[in-house]
Amino acid sequence: MNHNTDYTFELGKLLEFTAKVATAIRMYTVYNSASKDRLDGSLDVMWLADALHHYGRIAQAVVNGQSQAIIDLCDELTSIYTKYRQPTTARGQRPSAPSFERNGQYFDLDEAIAVFAEIRAKAAGQKQAI
After folding, report:
1. pLDDT (tens digit, 0 to 9) for every residue of the chain, 130 residues total?
2. What is the tens place of the pLDDT at every residue in 13-39?
3. CA-to-CA distance for 65 and 5, rounded, in angstroms?
4. Helix pair 8-26, 55-63: axis angle to 10 deg
5. What are the helix (H) ranges across the chain?
């Protein structure tokens, strides 16, 4: 287990993205007096929260210096974030794309996908160095 790789910059950018998604979620609360007028609010909150709930797994892999786990998680999250844009979902779920479109003024999924690519590249470089 090697902890020499510094992910501070990338994790900082991921934290910025998290704050943007949290702002979008906050707009569905009583903080926003117009929240009762927003369509599909609970569905949007579900998808927005879904975009963040895997981050603990990345954090754990970074803390533990698990390069392969970091690579696998970044690939998985890139796939998940790409699917968020698809007009349909599997298993009869409500599609996520409208939720992310409605909240596009707060964040862009490409921001997180780019960070996943940066983290993945560092982890792959670390894995090769071992």
Report:
1. 446 789 999 999 999 999 999 999 988 877 776 655 555 478 889 999 999 999 999 999 999 999 999 999 999 999 999 999 988 766 667 789 999 999 999 999 999 999 999 999 999 998 776 5
2. 999 999 999 999 988 877 776 655 555
3. 8
4. 160
5. 8-26, 41-50, 55-63, 67-83, 97-102, 109-129
**Can you spell out the DSSP letters for 40-62?**
THHHHHHHHHHTTTTHHHHHHHH
Calculated CA dihedral for residues 68, 71, 73, 74, nearest 10 degrees: 170
Q: Tokens at residue 51, please?
A: 């975009």
Distance of CA 20 to the CA centre of its chain: 11
18's CB contacts (< 8 A; 6+ apart) are 52, 55
- Non-local (6+) Cβ contacts of 66 within 8 A are 1
pTM here? Answer: 0.86
Q: Helices 109-129 & 8-26, crossing angle to 10 degrees?
A: 160
Give the whole-angstrom CA distance, residue 124 versus residue 75: 12
